[in-house]
Structures are given as C-alpha cells and as structure tokens.
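SEQUENCE-TO-STRUCTURE ENTRY
===========================

Backbone structure tokens: a row of integers, each naming the local backbone shape at its residue.

Task: work out the structure tokens from the sequence, keeping to the layout shown below.
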Amino acid sequence: MYNIHSHYFNLFSFLKTIIAQPRLEYLYPFGASSIENIETLDTANSLDQDPIIFCYDQEPLIPGFNDLLFDKIHQISKNLLRPVILVTTERDSAALDYFIKKFDFIPCYGFFHIFAAHDWFRGYQFDSRIMPVTQRTLKKKYITFNRLTGNARIYRSLFVGELSLRGLIEQGYVSYSDLCPEHGHYSNNLDQAIETYKLDINYINDVKQALDILPHPLRIDYHNKDSIPNHSMVLSAVEQCMETFLHVVTETCYWERKCHLTEKIFKPIILRQPFVLLGCAHNLEYLKNYGFKTFDRWWDESYDHIEDPVQRLKAVAEVVEYISSLTIGQLTDMLHEMEEVLEYNYQLFNSKEFLNSAWKELTNNLKTAVESAPVLQTFNTPRIYRMSEAIIKSRVAA
C-alpha cells in the first residue's frame, strides 16, 4: 500500500538520483491551489541549471483559475534561470496545452489519484459491510453521489434533471441538494451554464422544471447535515451501495477535452460494483488502458465516445433507464454474471504490480522530461548534470 503524505518526498528522493540539485514545488494541504499553499523541497537554495519540478497533480488544470499560481512559478523559474517541469495528472488535455504554451513549461504526466486512492481505501478489505457479490440483496437499481453541482460540476444538475425527466429518481439512491454548498441554487447555476457551455435554453428550462418537483434535498446518508460533506477519502453509504446494482460515477471533469480521473472511479471497484462513468469523452477507454475491464457485455458503452457533452449525458441516462427497466431478479442474475469482472478489477487495483507500474510510469516520464529540459542561461553552454560524487560512483558501479 501507499502513504500519500510521503508522495512528494518520495518524488524528491527519486529526483536526487537523476539530477544533482533538484527543487520540487507542490501544494499543501491536498486540494489547495493558491500561492500561499506552495511548499518547496530543495537541496541547496542556490542557482543551478537543473529544472524545477512543479507538481500540480491533485486537481484539474483550469485556464484562468490557475494562471496566477502558475505565473508565480514562472517568475521563480526566471529568477533562478531554471526551466519548469509541470507534473500533472492530465493526459491529452486542452488545458495542459494552454499552460505549456503560455508559460513554456515541460509537461510530465502521472496518475496521482492511483496513489491517493491506494492510501485512502487501503483499509476497506477488512470492512465487514462490503459483502461478497453473491450474498447481496438488491433493493435499488442505481446509486449516484452529487455534492458540488455548480460551475463545471453543473453537469450533475443536468444528470439529476435527466433522471427526473425520465421518472427514474425512485429507482435509485440519489444525493443532490437544491443549494450547492459552494455555488448556490441550481436554477442560477443552470442559467449561467447556458452561455458558458452553449446549452439550449429550452432544454435547461425542462431540466429546471424537473428539478423543481423533487423533494429537496435528496440524501443517501448524512440526513442530519445541511449539506453533503466532502469525504473524498472515504467510501460513503457502504450499506446502500451493497444493496444497489449500478454505481454512477460523477467525475470531477466533464466538459473539456482531457484524460483525467480521480479517486471517484476507484470507489465502485473497491466496492465490487458495476459502474457507468459520467466524465470527459474517452475517459472510460483511458481507464481500460490501465488494464481494467468494463461492462460492454451487458450494456452499450458507446457513450464514452460521444464528444457532445449533453448527448453523452443523455446516453448515460439511457443506460440507467435500461437498468431501471429490469427487475431486481434480473439484476441479481446479471450481478452474479459479472462477479469475475468485478473481482478482477478489485484485485488489479489492490495489486502491488499496479501500484508499481504507476510509480514506474511517473518516474520514467520524469526522466524523459528532465532529459528534454533546456538550459535557461544567458550564454550557450551544453547541459551538464552536476551530480554528486556518490551518484557518479553508483552509476559507474552499475
């Protein structure tokens, strides 16, 4: 298993094996994104030509929102005459393209949330509430968690509205509040989304009417709370998940072109539940590239390839509608058929090989980024790695 609190110290230790004077910047606490949250690991605090490693890998990249922070790192880079390697958990991302072009950063990809999820979910193998697949008694067709529902997460309001329009709310467990804890009422948020995401006003009005008739707030658990707490590091409503067939994963990113997944995608895997993914286009394929199996034997997963966000959302809702049309008995039989796939995904995630491969991917990408980094000097000199005597001796011995 992994300790996420030592992650950046692990990276810094690795960097010292490939460059002489590494400097690593990261954000603390987890999820922070402001200049005052920058933490620095440095060997010498002196001028050197080796690159600065800037880790912004906990949260998605957002043009406009991140510019002030990244400009600060850019200024540090210019003052120290050192290039910047941007470590991010995004692959094939329009936002990453934006920051690389604007600040001349060198990209380096690593799947941060593999490490975070391994830490956060490591104790659940001993949780007696998580029952074997063949011992579960299903009561609901699906379950979906929706805490933040404003700004970029407004798609969650669209999805709950779709469920309401299709008469599916009572078929599942749904968490949703009329008031987003950070962005206010869904009506105002949906109105803003019309311009932001070029949405059809008639469709938005239909969604608002469908949301208006719901008995807000909808809760799966935390019934005594005014708002749903942010407990990303825990598995919420385990008992309800055990009596539900389908887990609808509502990911952090949805609208843009990017490969970006978080710990949310691993929750149904730990719970051994089948799932559909509400995320950016092609992110189900992105997950499968890491060896995970999905459920196209049982329903249509072509939603993953739909570029239009609203049409992709409706396609996922159609899968939920299909699942909801089946009886509890049919879903129980289907769940038993899936046992091999669910167990395979569970074992893959928890395997030492999977964690090691994620670390190897990250460190190999760091090596490549370091080797490609230019020298930001005012005179022309070849790139020289000023390695310590101990590093040189270890290289010679090898």
User: Anything to note?
Assistant: The chain is about 40% helix and 10% strand. The radius of gyration is 23 Å. Residues 124-350 form one domain.
